[in-house]
Design brief:
There is one protein chain. It is built from 10 helices and 9 strands. It is of the alpha/beta class. The chain has 2 domains: about 170 residues, P-loop containing nucleotide triphosphate hydrolases (Rossmann fold, 3-Layer(aba) Sandwich), CATH 3.40.50.300; about 100 residues, GMP Synthetase, Chain A, domain 3 (2-Layer Sandwich). The strands form 2 sheets. It has a 6-stranded mixed sheet, sandwiched between helices. Strands 7-8-9 form a 3-stranded mixed sheet. The chain is globular, with a radius of gyration of 20 Å. The termini are far apart.
Length: about 300
C-alpha cells in the first residue's frame, strides 16, 4: 500500500455546517474549536452576516466548520434576505450539520430552523449549548423529550461553547462521521477567508460592541487599503452607515467613539496577524444601503 493510499484510509476530511437561530453561540463554538478568534462575537443578534469557514487539522483528520448567519423568520430588508440565503445554502454540499439550540430555551425561531432542516439529506447532530446556565440538569431531559425526536438526529450533545465543556467530545463525534479522504487545505491554514475580510470583520465587531439600538445593523466595513511595508501593516477602512445622524454617533464628540473603536480594533488585529498595524478609519453615508441588493453586493455580500 502506498503512503498516499494509507493516508486516505486513515485520515478523515469533510465539511460541517453550524446552523441555528441568531445569537445561539455558533461563532463562539467555532472560535472554541479552533482555539483562536476568527469569527466575531457580540451579545447582539445577527452579528454574523456571511459564511466563514474555520479549518481544524489534527493527525486524525481535517474538518472544515462553516459558521453561518442566524436563520430568522422575519427577513424584510435585502441584507437580512441575503443572510437567510447564505445560511440555508450552507445545508448543501456538506457532510454533516450541527444544529445549535440554547439549552432550555426553545423559540419560534428555533422551530423555523428545525423546519428548514427537515429537507436536509445529511446527518444532523443536535447540540444543546449554554448548558452551564441551566441549574437543573434533569430539566434538560424534559426539554429534549418535549421538543425533539431522537429519530431526527444522529446524536444529541450538550456543551458550553463559551467555557469549552463538552466541545472535545463533540469534535470526536463529528470526526467519526466524516469520510476517509486526504486533506484539502494546508495544515497551517485556519480559515478560507482573506486577511482583508477578517480585518473588516474585526473592525465591525468593535463598532457593534460600542454602538447601540439600530446602528450596528445599519453599518458595514469596507477595506480600502491593505499594504505591508517593512514591519508595518497599514489598513484603511471605510465605515458605511445609512444616515448623517448615524455618522455623527459613530464618529462621536470630537471623534472619541471612532478613536476608541480604532484603538481596540488595532489591538485585536495585531493579535490576529502578529504584526504592528497602522489603522485608519473613515465614516461615510450610503442611504439605506442594507435594503439595496445592488449596494449590499458592492459591499461584499455576495452569494
Amino acid at each position: 500500500m502506498t503512503e498516499n493510499n494509507a493516508l486516505e484510509n486513515e485520515f478523515r476530511f469533510g465539511y460541517v455546517s453550524i446552523v441555528g437561530r441568531p445569537n445561539v453561540g455558533k461563532s463562539t463554538l467555532l472560535n472554541q474549536i479552533l482555539g483562536q478568534k476568527v469569527s466575531i462575537v457580540t451579545a447582539k443578534p445577527q452579528t454574523t452576516r456571511q459564511r466563514l469557514a474555520g479549518i481544524k487539522t489534527t493527525p486524525q483528520g481535517q474538518v472544515v466548520y462553516v459558521d453561518t448567519p442566524g436563520i430568522h423568520h422575519t427577513a424584510k430588508r435585502a441584507l437580512n434576505r441575503y443572510m437567510n440565503r447564505v445560511a440555508k445554502a450552507s445545508f448543501r454540499d456538506v457532510d454533516l450539520v450541527l444544529f445549535l439550540v440554547e439549552a432550555g430555551n426553545w423559540t419560534r425561531q428555533d422551530a423555523f430552523v428545525a423546519k428548514a432542516l427537515g429537507s436536509v439529506d445529511v446527518p444532523v447532530i443536535l447540540v444543546l449549548n449554554k448548558v452551564d446556565l441551566v441549574p437543573d440538569k434533569e430539566s434538560l431531559l424534559e426539554f429534549i423529550d418535549e421538543h425533539f425526536s431522537g429519530d431526527d438526529y444522529e446524536s444529541i450533545m450538550m456543551i458550553s461553547a463559551k467555557k469549552g465543556s463538552g466541545v472535545d467530545e463533540l469534535e470526536k463525534q463529528v470526526l467519526a462521521r466524516l469520510p476517509f479522504s486526504r486533506p484539502f487545505y494546508d495544515e497551517d491554514q485556519f480559515t478560507d477567508r482573506s486577511e482583508r475580510f477578517l480585518a473588516a470583520e474585526m473592525i465591525r465587531e468593535q463598532l457593534t460592541l460600542r454602538l447601540h439600538q439600530e446602528l450596528p445593523y445599519a453599518l458595514t466595513v469596507q477595506i480600502e487599503e491593505f499594504k505591508r511595508k517593512g514591519k508595518l501593516l497599514t489598513i484603511g477602512a471605510i465605515i458605511w452607515v445609512e444616515r448623517n445622524s448615524q455618522k455623527q454617533i459613530t464618529v462621536g464628540k470630537n471623534g472619541i467613539v471612532l478613536k476608541q473603536v480604532g484603538s481596540q480594533a488595532r489591538v485585536v488585529l495585531e493579535a490576529l496577524f502578529g504584526e504592528k498595524i497602522f489603522l485608519r478609519l473613515w465614516v461615510k453615508v450610503s442611504k439605506d444601503w442594507s435594503d439595496s441588493d445592488k449596494l449590499i453586493e458592492r459591499f461584499g455580500y455576495t452569494d
